[in-house]
Write a structure and sequence with these properties.
10-stranded mixed β-sheet; globular; 367 residues; alpha/beta; Rossmann fold; 22% helix; two-stranded antiparallel ribbon
């Protein structure tokens, strides 16, 4: 459940982790004019922008009772496997002979840290993660203990949702470790991350963690440039107070037919947040499909999140302004930025009759 801890609500069925599909490779194209003297020369081949993958494992010093193992010195640690996707360039000849893609050493990229939902592997979100990397971001997706049945466990149970209380600290450690890795000249991430351009994104329980790290006095991180909460909630278990110190620019996305993280939870977040803030309403969407299943809903989430990130991390606001003014989003999705969330509806079709059903729930179980 996106806004509950173990024992606090009905359990939802487990979802088998699915591997991400291979990243789509895109080619940069340029058009140049040639003089008569070089008209017969063969144009230089253009390097291709591709998405590369790196698996890292960080070991966070820990109290013994919440550790997932011990390091080489026998000290208790929480093990945090972290999938990293990043833009890189591959020369055509390298592509033909199968050599590895290499990072573009001439520039750095903004960093996204993505926090998964409960009982979901980060690879389930492969479509989103690859889209953000193709858009020019380094994307890091840690696996928090007891959150993925194939991941690290504290020994309290293969899946133990109450461990979420420790995940904001895990996120902080992953961020610090990634920044340290990007300063290591022997790392593939060397000089690839811009430490002044960091965004946090999370879904469900991961959305709760993202919001806590971005806007809860219990655990907020400094220097976060933007945050995206995908069907998350203000989780009271963290303690502290939300938005008491403001927040970075915020995008809240919510399916209107979500019965796990009900719309009231996202409305509560949005209405309490200071501006700039944006609300993406996904009509008829349930808890997971808009973020994990291919189709128009996920396409809309990709368009909205990339436009939002580009506006606040790359200072390219035009696309976000266009979406906010009724720009094209599939599946009847809408993006708004008013002081309060818009009235929400579900639209269903019965035979030849279209029914519009107001979303009236005002109670968020996680609050």
């Amino acid at each position: 459940m996106g806004n509950a801890i173990a024992g606090s609500g009905a359990k939802r069925p487990a979802r088998a982790p699915r591997e991400a599909t291979a990243p789509t490779q895109t080619t940069d194209r340029t058009t140049t004019s040639r003089s008569a003297t070089d008209a017969n020369r063969k144009p230089a081949a253009k390097a291709r922008l591709v998405v590369s993958r790196l698996n890292l494992t960080f070991q966070e010093p820990s109290d013994p009772d919440i550790a997932t193992g011990r390091n080489a010195l026998g000290q208790p640690v929480r093990t945090l496997p972290t999938l990293v996707l990043y833009p890189s360039y591959q020369a055509p000849r390298a592509a033909r002979i199968g050599t590895a893609a290499r990072a573009n050493s001439r520039r750095t990229y903004p960093l996204i840290i993505f926090s998964q939902g409960f009982d979901l592997a980060p690879t389930v979100y492969g479509g989103l993660l690859h889209a953000w990397a193709r858009a020019g971001y380094v994307v890091a997706a840690p696996t928090y203990p007891d959150t993925d049945s194939t991941g690290p466990s504290t020994g309290l149970g293969r899946l133990y949702e109450a461990d979420i209380i420790h995940h904001p600290a895990d996120l902080r450690f992953v961020l610090a470790s990634l920044l340290a890795t990007s300063r290591n000249r022997h790392s593939r991430l060397y000089h690839l991350i811009n430490p002044r351009e960091i965004a946090l994104i999370g879904h469900s329980d991961g959305g709760d963690v993202t919001l806590a790290a971005a806007a809860d006095s219990c655990c907020e991180l400094p220097h976060i440039a933007a945050a995206v909460v995908l069907s998350g909630a203000e989780l009271s278990t963290f303690g502290g107070s939300y938005f008491s110190h403001g927040s970075p620019p915020l995008l809240v996305a919510q399916g209107s037919a979500d019965t796990i993280n009900v719309p009231a939870c996202s409305v509560q977040i949005y209405n309490a947040a200071p501006q700039p803030k944006y609300y993406l309403n996904i009509p008829n969407a349930e808890h997971e499909p808009p973020y994990v299943d291919p189709g128009p809903m996920r396409t809309g989430v990709i368009r909205a999140t990339v436009a939002f990130l580009n506006a606040y991390l790359k200072r390219r606001a035009a696309a976000l302004v266009a979406l906010d003014h009724g720009g094209p989003l599939p599946a009847d999705e809408t993006l708004t930025s008013g002081p309060t969330a818009p009235p929400l509806t579900n639209t269903t079709v019965t035979g030849t009759t279209t029914l519009t059903i107001p979303v009236t729930s005002t109670y968020c179980p996680g609050a």
